[in-house]
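Name: Glutamine--tRNA ligase
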Amino acid sequence: MSTDINKPDEGYLANLIREELHTYPFHRPMATRFPPEPNGYLHIGSAYAIMTNAEIARSYGGRFHLRFDDTNPLKEDAAYAEAILEDIKWLGFDPGSHVYYGSDYSEMIFKAAMTLIKKEKAYVCDLSPDELAAGRGTLTEPGVDSPYRNRSIEENVALFQEMKEGRYKTASKVLRARIDMSSPNMNMRDPVLYRIIHADHYRTGAAWCIYPMYDFAHPIQDAIEGITYSLCSLEFKDHRPLYEWVLAELGYEEPPRQREFGRVGVTGVVTSKRYLRQLVEERHVDGWDDPRLPTLRGLRRRGYTPASIRSFIEEIGSIRSYSTVDISLLDQCLRQDLKESTISVMAVLRPLKIVITNYPEDTEEMLRVENNASNVELGSREVPFSRTIYIEQDDFMEDPVPGYHRLQPGGEVRLKGAYFIRCQKVVKDPESGDILEVHCTYDPETKSGTGFAGRKVKGTIHWVSAAHAVAGEVRLYDRLLRDENIPKEDSVDWSKWLNPNSLIQLYAAQFEPIAGKAAPGDRLQFFRHGYFVADDGPSTNEGPVFNRIVPLKDSWNKK
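Structure predicted for Glutamine--tRNA ligase:
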């Protein structure tokens, strides 16, 4: 045995596995798998399952498999499979050569079904889908035996073979396990093992018209690949007896073991694949990679790093039941990841023009600003300064409220990395009364870095030289949902649940020159505004587009 069972305490699931291996070890290497359906995109909950499986395998020196559960040709597509593999690699859990497809096992699963038929453990049933559902019974009443339950082995073999050959219409027959229609576990009441679907498969084409159900294919695929632990979310706990029944009836020695872990929900987002599909198809969001969605594609476009997502999952740890985690924890993990590695730049999101009237016209100078106040090793850069600059509209108040320490008539503030300026005049539009620009004077003796003393101000604000500014767009994101407790309905009236301020687009932002050189995916910290990433999606603006990943401090619950 190659597994190390002398592991330290690593959480509920790891401890459970370690205890089991002390008593019932496997005589083969540890192997786990993640079995996504290629009918959609991965999300933050998928990341939890991926990391759980991959880390358990890694901790025992074993293998992590990616196996596509592609047993439903009506919903699956090669593009989804490619995207899933790409997302898993981006997350940091490359399965390498261990990428498998359930459809590759079609012949073996078919033979396994024939084995059950010949053992009188499976039969072909002609009941319609509605009749099947009605005959299952309820949680308090047993099911009813199918009138086709006692067909002979020979008849079942012939019918199942004819199903494979395409002689019957879709849904006209199914293959069912013969177990116990009075079982308290509904999953054991003669579950369907195979159904007829006349549709081309994205990998096998028209080679098959019968497809196994997940509960039947899953344990067989695990056994074929030598999986030791099938780690599933808690919703599959009631399916475990069927998993074990299939493996036992097929006679697998040292069969894989299914064990469950809790599911994770995140406040402010929706992880239901059905709801995600509705949001995308009804155009409430801008595709599967919309930065407001918890899909890995959306999180990546939003600017979250793989390391921050892994850290988030590590903080959650191994859980036994369903748990809802505040999204602020994910944001905090990202801030910790970016704090000392990201360059801080000046960006003015809602510009107000400032004219420094005593600064020489047609003059500019280069001022030195640190790249990261938390990490001196990132060095510094030169930033251009000129007579006309932009500051944030919020950094000037004509009638300041008590405690306001930024620019105000007659008041003085420090420009970050530059000089002190004092407000002398406010220029307004004579018709609307809107402020057009503010005239200030500067004190040349207060240049940053020159060792001036004796002058202090309470406010320091950021700025961008108007002559050198790069214009662009900024997208500010908030949580997508007003409330994540969405009723379980087939059709949701999303107008009642969506936050109308989940996306605010600012088209007149002004950035210092270095921001204009950012490539898609580059992350920057904008002074006082938070962490941003250069977007690679379409824009109505010719300049760069930046998505805000997170503010500098948690603001989710500050309404």
